[in-house]
Amino acid sequence: MSSSCLLAGRNEVVIEEREQGIQEIHNQIGEINKIFKDLAVLVKDQGVMIEDIGTHIDNSRAETAQGRSQLAQASNTHKDQNSSLLDVGKARTSVWNVFIDRKSINEYVT
């Protein structure tokens, strides 16, 4: 009987060791599960950030195109205004020349 008691005692030790091992594995699986849940939250948050970055890039692209268009319009308007001012200057010079020519003619005639 003593050998069967010894065997039974040894079996109980082995069973307890196995139970402890199983419990450790169970705890580790729980920790891994928590890590995966935390990782899922991080991935989800980063996905939102990436979508925001994409939206900002699209908005910047559209605003840049609009700015280029406005600069082109301003440049054309500036060129037109300079051209108009040049035309006004030419007209003034022409009128002044006519005035001087008339004055010279009147002085010459009299």
From TrEMBL:
Residues 64-85 are annotated as: Disordered. Transmembrane segments: none annotated. Residues 12-74 form the T-SNARE coiled-coil homology domain. Residues 64-76 have a biased composition (Polar residues). The keyword Transport applies. Keywords: Protein transport, Transport. Belongs to the syntaxin family. This is t-SNARE coiled-coil homology domain-containing protein. The gene is A09g504820.1_BraROA.
